[in-house]
What we know:
Elements: E1 5-8, H1 10-14, H2 23-42, E2 46-52, E3 55-59, H3 61-71, H4 81-86, H5 91-103, E4 104-108, H6 113-117, E5 125-128, H7 136-140, E6 146-149, H8 154-157, H9 166-177, E7 182-185, H10 188-198, E8 206-209, E9 233-237, H11 246-259, E10 267-271, H12 279-286, E11 292-294, H13 300-309, E12 312-315, H14 324-331, E13 336-339, H15 342-348, E14 353-355, H16 360-373, H17 379-387, H18 396-410
Parallel strand pairs: 1-2, 1-5, 5-6, 6-7, 7-8, 9-10, 9-12, 10-11, 12-13, 13-14
Antiparallel strand pairs: 2-3, 3-4
Helix pairs in contact: 2-3, 11-16
Amino acid sequence: MPPAHLLDLTRLVSRLGRAALTGVDRVELAWAERLLEGEVREGIPLFALVRTAWGFCLLDRRGVEKVLAVTRGAPLGKADLAGRISRRSDPLRARAEAVARRESVTRCIVPGLARMLRRLPPGTVYFNMGHANLTPRVMAAQAGPRVVLIHDTIPLDHPEFTRPGIPQVFARKLAAAAQAELIVHTTHATRALTEAQMARLAPLPAGVVAPLGVGLPAPGGFHLPGLDRARPFFVTVGTIEPRKNHALLLDVWQALAQRLPEGAMPQLVIAGSRGWLNRAVFARLDARPPHVIEAPGLSDAALAGLLQASQGLLFPTQAEGFGLPPLEAAGLGVPLIVSDLPVLRETLGDLAVYLSPTDVYSWMETIERAARDGRGWGDGVRGQAATGGKRALPDWTTHFNTVLNFLRQTGPQDRTR
């Protein structure tokens, strides 16, 4: 039997039935789709590993196809007895893990993982592309090459933006990742930060930079109560948490309201759900600031349609691992005003206007000018994005090929369990 691929789907399974997928979820989904194609076209068997409250599940191709079907909207199904016992406080997670148990070809309790994985062909490559289930036990149980994608090290570089305890949890994940044969980085900027953190843990594994692909959903219709489509509006995309810097935009809109007449005021649409550690911002939003509209839970098509109808995307993030929203907006031909961060300079090039994420005045002046100049203010950026500009948007095929070609060139690296 030829060497197989083993993809960790723990994160994606944990998200089954949720309203929308995060950027990291989409990466795990993209890899599942690519490795499924690998089994069909290249004859490389695909398995998936899922950690549940009751241990580990091993899925084959049919099980992966079932998980992807549910991700795309197929019925989730009911929770089993194990889920009802172990996930009483999270019924949706109970139903999600039941899918993995029903579709598994075999299961084991935690201490039996290495024994279970001996069923797989020698040289099987383990892929962990979503940070979940990244532990020393899981890494040690793999006999073949181990590939880990590190999206960013924000919990360690900026602990002030994370919930209590998360930096310690992430440090343990990074220590486990240091056992891998290959670390995938999405940009050179994030590689530098990640390797600076990993250098304290162990000798650095091999690394490769493979920018994530940018998917462009077909723009669809949208309806937002309170939005006046006859007036200019800007959109910001992302969970409402401190790192995304919504406070700066609220300050900008408050300042604009003091200097502009009512009829000249632009609108701000916040496309994202409320997150964590942001009570002050939540209180400001609860006070219903004029010309500011919250829009959580938009579909991909509705968000794309909203962006295309807007004056531009605002992205004042204070730290970022890759920055999918501005890349996706650029692909739709939407002008961008973003934070001046190395990672965004690397991915966006000349497709954006860059401002300091702490300079309220510069953001206010730039937004006011863009609103006053109408849709034509970003024609240069729109034109570059539509034609590929000087910075072609990354694609998934190149991402996958960069990683898989590296593995082919280095060859199998079996170890004794």
